[in-house]
C-alpha cells in the first residue's frame, strides 16, 4: 500500500493538496504515552507554508485535530487519526495545468498510471501530503522519548545551489537551526543562502540543495539484516519525499575514492563501551546501528515550478508551452528540513519497537 510506511509503528497518510484536508492514521503507537495537540503543532509549524519571506506565501495555519486514539492526553494503543484542514485553496490557479503537463512534475506519470489525477497543486504528489508524515513523526518522537530518551534527531540545510554550510553534527542544536529562516546551523552561510534564494525567485527560477541529518545517541543493535537494513529504511524514507534525488550516508560517494585502509572505522573500548575512532560508516554497519552518530544527507532538486515559459504537451497529445502559476517555493530546502528529520524519527521509532519486540522487553 503506497500511502503506508513502517512495520511496528505504521503510518498511513491521506489527502490532496487542494482537497478538504490532509492527515495521517497511526497504528502501533504503544499505550500510555503522553501526547497533546501542541506536541504535534510544534512540528507542523516548522513545515507550514507562509512562515518566512523565502517560502511559498500560501497562508495555512496547518492546525491539527486529533480525532482518535487518546483519552485525557494519553495514548490508548488504538489507531490515532490526525487531520489538518486545507483553508487557503485556490484551484483556479491550476485550470491551465488540468490540460497541460507541468515539466518535471508528476502530472504526466499520474495520468499514465491512473488515467485520472487531481490537477490542483499536484494532488497527492504535492509536498502538502507531508503534513501527515510530520504529524506522525511528532507522535513517533514521543515514543522514542519513552524508549530511548537519550536519542536526538536533527536535520539542517547543508547546501543550497553552490553554497555550503559549515555545521558540526556533533554539536549543532535545534536552536542553532531554527535561528535563521534557511534552517542551517551556519549563520554566515545562512545570509548568503537567503540572498541567493531571493535572487533566483526574482528571476522566476528555482534552486535545490542538500539536507544533512544526524541521529545522536542511537543505541547499538537497531536495524535488521538484509532487506530491512537501517540505512536502506532511511534511504526509502527520505527518498519518498517530494523533490528528492539522492541519498548518501557516512562517507557516501566520497568513500568510493578511498582505500579500505583509509576508510575502515577502527574499534576501541572507551569507558566500557565499544566505539569507533572514526565514523565513515555513518553509524551503521551491516544494516545495524553501532552506537556512533548516524549521519546522512539527502539531495533535493530545484523546484519544478518556475515562472518562465517551458515546452510541454497537453493531455490530448499536442505540443504547447506553459508558464508556472500559483504559489511555490523557489527553494524547498528550508521547509524540507522538518520533513527529513520526521522521516528519520519514523524509522528510528519503528526499529526501536521492533527491537523491543524481538528482545521481549
Would you kindly provide a brief summary of this structure?
The protein has 361 residues and is an alpha+beta fold.
Rounded mean pLDDT score:
93
Write the element-wise H/E pattern from the N-terminal end onward: EEEHEEEEHHEEHHEHEHEEEEEEEH
Level of helix content? Answer: 25-40%
- Number of DSSP strands? 18
Distance N to C terminus:
30 Å
Instruction: Give the neighbour order of strands across the main sheet.
Output: 1-2-3-7-4
Number of helices, counting only DSSP H or I runs of 4 residues or more = 8
Q: Give the strand content.
A: 15-25%
Structural class estimated from helices and strands? alpha+beta
- Rounded Rg: 21 Å
How does the major sheet shape up? Answer: 5 strands, antiparallel
Low-confidence segments, ≥5 residues, pLDDT <50?
none
Q: How would the global form be characterised?
A: globular
Task: List the main descriptive attributes of the protein structure presented here.
361 residues; alpha+beta; five-stranded antiparallel sheet; 8 helices; 18 strands
Amino acid at each position: 500500500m503506497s500511502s503506508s510506511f513502517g512495520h511496528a509503528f505504521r503510518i498511513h497518510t491521506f489527502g490532496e493538496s487542494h482537497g478538504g484536508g490532509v492527515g495521517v492514521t497511526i497504528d502501533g503507537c504503544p499505550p500510555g504515552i503522553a501526547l497533546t495537540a501542541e506536541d504535534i503543532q510544534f512540528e507542523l509549524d516548522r513545515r507550514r507554508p507562509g512562515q518566512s519571506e523565502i517560502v511559498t506565501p500560501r497562508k495555512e495555519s496547518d492546525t491539527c485535530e486529533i480525532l482518535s486514539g487518546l483519552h485525557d492526553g494519553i495514548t490508548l494503543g488504538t489507531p490515532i487519526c490526525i487531520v489538518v484542514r486545507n483553508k487557503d485553496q485556490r484551484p483556479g490557479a491550476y485550470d491551465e495545468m488540468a490540460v497541460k503537463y507541468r515539466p518535471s512534475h508528476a502530472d504526466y506519470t499520474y495520468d499514465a498510471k491512473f488515467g485520472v489525477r487531481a490537477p490542483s497543486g499536484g494532488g497527492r504528489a504535492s509536498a502538502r501530503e507531508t503534513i501527515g508524515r510530520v504529524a506522525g513523526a511528532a507522535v513517533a518522537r514521543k515514543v522514542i522519548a519513552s524508549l530511548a530518551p537519550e536519542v536526538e534527531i536533527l536535520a539542517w540545510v547543508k547546501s543550497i545551489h553552490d553554497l555550503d554550510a559549515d555545521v558540526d553534527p556533533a554539536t549543532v542544536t535545534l536552536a542553532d537551526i531554527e535561528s535563521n529562516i534557511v534552517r542551517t546551523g551556519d549563520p554566515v552561510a545562512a545570509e548568503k543562502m537567503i540572498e541567493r534564494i531571493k535572487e533566483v525567485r526574482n528571476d522566476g527560477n528555482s534552486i535545490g540543495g542538500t539536507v544533512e541529518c544526524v541521529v545522536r545517541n542511537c543505541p547499538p543493535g537497531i536495524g535488521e539484516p538484509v532487506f530491512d537494513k537501517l540505512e536502506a529504511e532511511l534511504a526509502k524514507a527520505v527518498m519518498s519525499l517530494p523533490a528528492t534525488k539522492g541519498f548518501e550516508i557516512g562517507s557516501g560517494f566520497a568513500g568510493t575514492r578511498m582505500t579500505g585502509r583509509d576508510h575502515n572505522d577502527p574499534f576501541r573500548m572507551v569507558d566500557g563501551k565499544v566505539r569507533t575512532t572514526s565514523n565513515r560508516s555513518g553509524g551503521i554497519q551491516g544494516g545495524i546501528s553501532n552506537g556512533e552518530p548516524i549521519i546522512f544527507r539527502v539531495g533535493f532538486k530545484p523546484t519544478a515550478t518556475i515562472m518562465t515559459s517551458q515546452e510541454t504537451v497537453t493531455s490530448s497529445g499536442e505540443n504547447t508551452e506553459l508558464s508556472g502559476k500559483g504559489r511555490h517555493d523557489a527553494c524547498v530546502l528550508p521547509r524540507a528540513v522538518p520533513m527529513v528529520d520526521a522521516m528519520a524519527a519514523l524509522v528510528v521509532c519503528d526499529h526501536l519497537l521492533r527491537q523491543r519486540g524481538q528482545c521481549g522487553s
